[in-house]
Amino acid sequence: MSRNAETPSASETPEEPVLRFDEVSMRYGRQPEVLTGVSFALRPGSFHFITGASGAGKSSLLKLIYLAARPSSGLIHLFGQDLSRAPAGLLPLLRRRIGVVFQDFRLLDHLTAFDNVAVPLRITGQKPSSYRADVAELLGWVGLKGKMQALPPTLAGGEKQRLAIARAVVARPDLLLADEPTGNVDHQMALRIYRLFVELNRLGTTVVIATHDQDLVARSGQPVMHLEGGRLSLPAAPAPRGRL
Amino acid sequence: MTPFDPMRWRPAPFLPRNDVRDGALMFVIAVLSFLACLTALGAVASDRAARGWTAQLAGSATVVVHPRPGETPDSAAARAAETLSSVEGVAEAVALEKEKAEALIAPWLDDPEVLADLPVPRLVTVELDRRAPASTEAMTAALKARGQDATVDDHSTWMKEIKSAAGLTRWAAFGVFLLIAMATAAAIAFATRAGLAARRDIVEVLHLSGATDGFIARLFQVRFARMAALGGLAGAAGAAAFGAALRLIGGGEGLTPVLPVAWWDLSLTLACPIAAAGVAALAARQTAVALIGELT
Questions:
Q1: What is the dihedral of CA A92, A96, A102, A104, to 10 degrees?
Q2: Per-residue pLDDT of chain A (244 residues; tens, 9 = 90+)
Q3: Domain containing A32: what range?
Q4: Alpha-carbon torsion A120, A121, A122, A123, what sign?
Q5: Is A32 contained in some domain?
Q6: What kind and span of H or E run contains A238?
Q7: Contact in structure between A232 and A25 (CB atoms under 8 Å)
Q8: CA distance A38 to chain B (A)
Q9: Residue B224: closest CA among B29, B35, B31
Q10: Within 13 Å and on the Cβ side, how many CA atoms surround B175?
């Protein structure tokens, strides 16, 4: 069984975790389990890496967190809500509090960079006048100021990555998930993206990054949840090597 | 190229504006709407024809007079007409002249010369008071009281047949209309399913960004309702033009007295784009909600 990563002890502040998994297992259809008995809790404002080999269950774990899949057993509490008992109407509201950077970006090719970033704000029904400036500022922040009208197919890999990040954070989510966010970029860009996440984390966003980039993980000094064969283990937080 | 000004930005539609399938679907909806409008026009015209015939028959009666021995057919008919004129509820009773009575039978005979040898009965045509028409029984009793041998035909057998045929036509038109509406809904549901499958990326991104099922379904609902409204408008315009041509060619009676078309009937086609949009919106919403539900 996996260890409980960050359940607060009696001496700690009894702050409600942003996310808590209790003995969660998951399988696709009648296939073998891809996650088995996973338990952990994330404090608000924490920063975690999820590591593991391909097929270890990283993406499946993220899918459960961003409510794109349901567990076959076990309980998930998200923002204090027991998802097994949450009414269907509540799920979209919970999703709005999560920003996701997908491994394959999932940008909408027929929309401009500006429109892509505005998607999470538009679906909340806000007026464009209330967020135009924020979207423009954010695009500048991720280094895409000159690409606001560009369509995603015309952007380079790193630009798409940053655009996907901008879309994920534009609504100021409480929880930010990223699946291999540095997988398609060079080392310098990877560091730049990591620093974006750290900055967001400093602003209070809980960050979870699934990655293969062991060097980045090792140098960050952030806690790591390691998945192996669908089981979660939590090594001690590595001491930071060098500066990021 | 003008530099992009974020402050003047307007959101682009979530669904791409042009889809190659849109034109084909709009054509199908236009054809179905055209057929639906023609069915509705046909039903209204046949209903009007049936009402007209029934009204004509209900306002009159025909009396067959059999002369008594020693009485000429003409005098028997004249006496019957006089008797009937005095019955309450009869506006006018006129004995049909021999030539006219024979003219009614002539078309059914191969050789008109035979008429001379036939005992052609004399007829009295009776125009009834529309507000309080005389009953068959009252007319028969009056003739009997005057000792006349006559049969009163109030056309009820014909009227029953016409009413039955009109009712059947109405139901048949309604059935065809319903079938066309269902075919339209099925075509739109199929197109929505294909549209959602082709735009699964958009649906997924919106869904995972926190859009409600209703929000996503509404995108497809509005898209297909608009498309159906345009298709319905084209179909209705075609049907209205067809109806107008019938009215112009055939005058007040339309192309044929069997289906009299009135200018007013053409206004029926105005409802078509609205009905098509309604059917499309419903079908698209049902399909979209069901498909979005399959995402999680």
A1: 60
A2: 333 344 333 333 457 899 999 999 999 988 999 999 999 999 999 999 999 998 899 999 999 999 999 999 999 999 999 999 999 899 999 999 999 999 999 999 999 999 999 999 999 999 999 999 999 999 998 889 999 999 999 999 889 989 999 999 999 999 999 998 887 777 887 888 888 899 989 999 999 999 988 888 888 889 999 999 999 987 655 555 555 5
A3: 19-97+173-233
A4: positive
A5: yes
A6: none
A7: no
A8: 21
A9: B29
A10: 6
Return the residue of A nearest to B199 by Cα. Answer: A108
Q: How many separate domains does chain A show? A: 1
Q: Does a structural domain hold residue A223?
A: yes
With CB atoms and an 8 Å threshold, state whether B211 touches A114: no
Query: Is B211 close to A118, i.e. CB distance below 8 A?
Result: no
User: Of all helices (H) and strands (E), which one includes residue B220?
Assistant: helix B213-250
Asked if residue A212 is part of any domain, the answer here is yes
Is A151 an interface residue toward B (CB < 8 Å)? no
Can you tell me which residue has the tokens 């019955």?
B87
Name the residue in chain A with its Cα closest to that of B1.
A149
Q: Half-sphere exposure (CA, 13 Å, Cβ side) for A55?
A: 2
Among chain A residues, CA nearest to B19: A110
State the smallest CA–CA distance between residue B222 and chain A in angstroms. 16
The structural domains of chain B, ordered by start, are 17-54+165-293 (no CATH), 55-159 (3.30.70.100)
Is A196 a domain residue? Answer: yes
Residues 27-66 of A with CB under 8 A from B: 66
Whether B10 has its CB under 8 Å from any CB of chain A: the answer is: yes
> Cβ-count burial of A148 within 10 angstroms (0-12 exposed, 13-18 middle, 19+ buried)?
buried
Closest in B201, B204, B206 to A123, CB measured: B206
Here the CATH number for the domain that contains residue A228 is 3.40.50.300
Given the cut 0.95, state whether the ipTM is greater than it. no
